[in-house]
Amino acid sequence: MIPRRTFVAAMAGSMAVPWYLLPAGDTRVAQLTDGTLHYASARVLAEAIRRKRVSSLEVVDACLRRIEQVNPKLNAVVQLTAEPARAGARQADAELARGKLRGPLHGVPFTVKDSFDVAGVISTAGTQGWAKRIPTEDATIVARIRAAGAILLGKTNTPEFTWSDETDNLVYGRTSNPYDLTRTPGGSSGGPAAILASGGSPLDVGSDTGNSIRMPAHNCGIAGLKPTAGRVPKTGHAISYRGILESWTQVGPMARFVEDLILTLPLVAGVDGRDPHAVPAPLLDPARVDVRALRVIFFTAIPSRTPTAETVRAVEGAVAAVHANGARVEPKLPPGLEDATDLWHKIVFADGGAWLGRLLQTAGTPGTGSLDALPAKEQVPSDQLTLLVEQLDEVRSQLLRFMQDADVIICPVMAMPAVPHGGSSQPGYADRYNEPHNITGWPVAVVRAGTSPEGLPIGVQIVGQPWHEHVALAVAKVVEAASGGWKAPPL
Prior knowledge:
The protein is α/β, with parallel strands linked by helices and about 500 residues long. It contains 13 helices and eleven strands. Helix 4 links the parallel strand 2 and strand 3. Helix 9 runs antiparallel to helix 11. It is globular and about 65 Å long.
């Protein structure tokens, strides 16, 4: 696996100082205690380790203790690499003592969604045929995070081949939401979202084909980023760079805090010589975005899915925050959102689900695995498929034209907060607020902006123009500052 050339290369010339250094006056490092280490951001932990205010081993141990405390209730971490993590932390501390700094994440622990390959660790993608599969090399995004100095704590749960709104599979079972154990954290990155929200890990990586970073981030009140299509290579992910749905699947960072998305994205972006769709596009600095110059479009509802009142208030609060910072805001519903969602559903199973069947066959999974709950689909004739692709490109073009008058769109992630286990299969539940942004390939950041009457998190989507992750992340920081962002669950 080819790691990032250097962690500085992605941001060369765009910043006066390395982006991973905290401001000199930042007091968060000095305020760290043994009892708060597991809730600190990856950025703060990295700086605390670098300044030798805390050791990597202390941080790793704090996270492992928290996993031990909460994971029996959540079932979020499915493979724990505790002893290798402690050994890696000791090595990181020894290297730092000799003056060696591997990178911005030196000594910082992280977890990885089980749909990504990790060398030497069982990597199942939630399918029975891979229950004992041990890859020999890391997925590109994992290799790059490790090359930046981070230390693996373990792997987090995912539905089979990431293909469900609920994180459940026949290998490891079901993951629960830390804010209400009777509810789902969402899918497919539900394991990452649940353990991040609970303080078991400061950083994870997710994947998103239909909503799989954004819905769990919304359900669990954390921050997540679906990057622009082509920004981060998908090499080593169970749903890889191959096939007609390639441009819909993106991999990206998940964390409790927006600043950790900003920290991580430059480390994992860029071509790897394997993913033929990865693009060496410039990556800009969110700190240089002038929010006062931004044009913000927002909407709180689409006709087919009425959101809860609290969801509407969360979007309105996010819009008020960016408006208070000088941005121009305008309520406006983008065209073609319903068409985009319908096309997503038609195209994804246009081959009758044969592409999913090939995944199961390749893995050696008997029957249809946990995917047998999916409704049977008939293949569409080739002339209908080509028509669907033409319609898809027209919707993409229509939405691009719309975005010429906007820098970001702020809208709901879902119409409601996390639902009870099994609720995503009920009539009226759908992902119509987020699926359109998979087929466009645009970047989307999610951050918590509200709370339901039951105490459940409510996130908002901040949709940017292609290759403008820096703008979406800058706006996400404004919303996070106004709303307070992530809040610890009652575990």
